[in-house]
Prior knowledge:
Elements: E1 2-5, E2 14-19, E3 29-34, H1 39-48, E4 55-61, E5 68-72, E6 76-80, H2 82-85, E7 88-91, H3 94-98
Antiparallel strand pairs: 1-2, 2-7, 3-4, 3-7, 4-5, 5-6
GO molecular function: transition metal ion binding
Protein name: Ferrous iron transport protein
Organism: Monoglobus pectinilyticus
Amino acid sequence: MIVEKGDNMSENSEYQIFPLNKLVPGETAIIVKIDSEIKEHKNHLINLGFMPGEKITPVFKSPLGDPIAYIIGRSIRIALREREAKKIFVTGDLYETEMV
């Protein structure tokens, strides 16, 4: 896991971020950032609803484990392959994120 200071949180806060693919079904986290050097890929994920600040929960793994279905916010349901989920970073610290 990565520990970062400041960034989108208050300057004095420390929080752990980790790739989305590390969440297990039923855990909820907050999207922090999309780490892609390809602007079009990053924009595509944002257009699908993977916006920083949104709550995300994996709800179902396919029989072979890839892709995984996620709920973003309250209503967006989408399946994402692991290679894409590795580029989306989240934090499980809901209290810190909601204080922004």
